[in-house]
Amino acid sequence: MFDDPNLVSAAGLVPALRLAESAGLYDLLEERLSVPSANATVKAASVVGGMLAGADSIDDLDVLRHGGMERVFTGVRAPSTLGTFLRSFTHGHVQQLDAVGAGLLAGLAGRVPGVLAGADTEQGLAFLDVDDTIREVHGYRKQGAGYGYTRVRGLNIQLLPCRPRWQAR
Question: Residue 99 burial by CB count (10 A; 0-12/13-18/19+): exposed, middle or buried?
Answer without folding.
Answer: middle
